[in-house]
Structures are given as structure tokens and as C-alpha cells.
Amino acid sequence: MSVKDFIEKDYYAALGVPKNADADAIKKAYRKLAVEFHPDKNKGDAAAEERFKEISEAHAVLSDQARRAEYDEVRATSASGGYRNPGAGAAGASGGFDFSDLFGGAGSPSGGFGDVFGDLFGGGRGQGRRRGPRRGDDYETQTSISFVEGIDGATVSLRIATDAPCSVCAGSGAQPGTRISQCGTCQGSGQVSRNAGGFAFAEPCSACHGRGRVVETPCSTCRGRGIAAQTRTINARLPQGVRDGQRIRLKGKGGAGEPGAPAGDLFVTVKVAAHKLFTRSGKNLTMTVPLSFSEATLGADVKVPTLHADAVTLRIPAGTSSGKTFRVKGAGVKNSKTGDGDLLVTVEVAVPQRLTESMKAAVEAFKDATAEMDVRADLFGEQ
Predict the structure, then answer these.
(1) CA-to-CA distance for 365 and 120, rounded, in angstroms?
(2) Model's pTM, two decimal places?
(3) What's the DSSP call for residue 380?
């Protein structure tokens, strides 16, 4: 993005966040908007596609600490009258400088000071303004998997619309059959040195736009950019134990960079469906198993299912209370690094809703046999 973009575009407004928003607020706002305006959800809607590009550009700047600092500095200086947009009137009208003169517009001496300005914001340390070919954009998407796939891991197919290497020129930016030569001005480095006020500054080569090479005949499809918008399918492997809402980074699977620059990343938010029997607590699986009154009172061997293996048998001791939890070792989430989790089985005494006459008589007999037992005696002891 150019300095002109920084002055003219309000990236905070694009994401709907205040200027003092922290990184988490920016990320949350971007995720919400990216899902709402994603091309897959708005097929054929040019306005939604343009909005998606706008919020992606805003996120690319505001999520990068160095680029955000540069953006804020440029905006603050512009607001104070330090420089203004081209066509805003004569320089003397506002007491400021002409933006076009300051940043290398027509009539500016030695090409202007735009590149010097870029160096002042961290160019010498690899931060601040990006030099040469632009890295590809990062993209966001989401996918839904079953509970078992979340535990075992899964390979999913993601259909996304991103910038991709141009299929006609294979990402070279040159019309097929034409030459690509090394830039004679920068000797292929993509940068040249320029003296300004006794200091030497490195700046992108104007002859090759920082690419280090010259395309004699630009590709007619991508107009020499080497990238074009495409809808493509990416097969991604999700790890074992992926959690609901977890965000997975697929390095280099985002938008294609300009020739000579790396691709961006793809961030996948995973939605894991609920299971009818099991829930998850860290690396452990949990479930609730009903017991009859007689099983809880007299004790019993009870079979319970596991997620993958055959059923296991739990030995329930006599006098087991409702809510007691039993542990089945190694029957939880599989993890080669931290060790396998366990299955935690909580028992719950089931109270019959309908009684036959014989059942009712048995309960009455039990009631008479335990008449001297006061299960609430401790409630009224000494305070």
C-alpha cells in the first residue's frame, strides 16, 4: 500500500473499531466481517466481494504492529496539515506542503522524499514500508467437522476465493512465449541507492518496481501482476484433538504474492459438532451413565461405551451415590506428545416415573425397613 492509500483510506472505519482498539478487538471484528462478506456466501455479489477486499486490506495493515504504527503516523501527520492530497488547492491555502511534491509527484526535486519517509519508519530494519514485490494477503475461512473427526483429526476440502498464481502465465507476469530479463538498473537486486542531504538511502528500483526483473510483454490476463482472483479447493489436514473454535494456520495457502514474493497464509476456524453421548474436557472425554436404584445400592457391573473401542465394564461398588465419577484410563483424546486422556464416567441414579403395583409394594416395604434412618439428620445438627 502507498502513502496515498494510508491517507485516503480509514482502515479503522472499515473494520468498525476505534483507533485505540487492541489486537484482539481488531481480530474479532475482522473475523465477523470476513464471514459475513466472504465470496462463498455472496456468490455473484460484486459489492460484497469489494467489501471483503476492503476489510482484508484493513486487517493486513492493522494486524501488523509495524505497519499499523506507520499508518497511524502518516494519518496523524496528514491531519495536522503536514501534507495533503493532490488537488487540494495551492500549498499556501492551508499553510502545508503539496502531497504530490513531497512524495515524488510532478515537479518534485529528485523524485521527492517519499522513499526517504519510508526509510524513516523502519525500512533499514526490515520493518515499516514493504519493499519490492508484495507478499500475498492472508485469508480467513471456516469448516465444520464431526466430534469424532475432532478427536482423530481429519482432512477437509476448503473451497475459497483468493488471489492465486495466474493460470495463463504461471505466475510469471509475462505473456507466454515472451522474455523475462534481469533489470539492468538494479542488476536484479530490486533496490537502488540514492543520496539525499548527504545520506544514502536504499529504495525500490523504479525501473522494475522492486522485482529485480523486467517483463517485456505483460500477461494479457493478469496485466503483469502474476496473480489473478480464483476460486480453488485446498485439502487441509486438521490435527488430532482439534477443539471447537480453534484457529488453524496454513502457511502459504493464502493469496498469491507478486512474482518474487511469498504467498500469504490461510487461517481456518474449526467448528466441531456435539456428540450425543460424549463431551470433551481438555484431553479427557466425559459422559453420564444412568444407574438403577438397586445397582447403586447393591453394587453392579455396568457396561459403558467408549468412543472407538468396544464397551468396557465398570464395577460399581455398593452404596454408590448419584454424581460419583469413575475413570477409564486411556479412553480419552489420543495425544502422542502429552499422553492419552481418560474417559470420565459420572453415574446418575435414575428414578422410575411409573411404578407397577408390585414395584410400589417393594418400595413401601423398603420404606418400612428403613424408617429409623434419617438421611437429613445432619441438616439440623449443631451450627
Answers:
(1) 91
(2) 0.51
(3) G
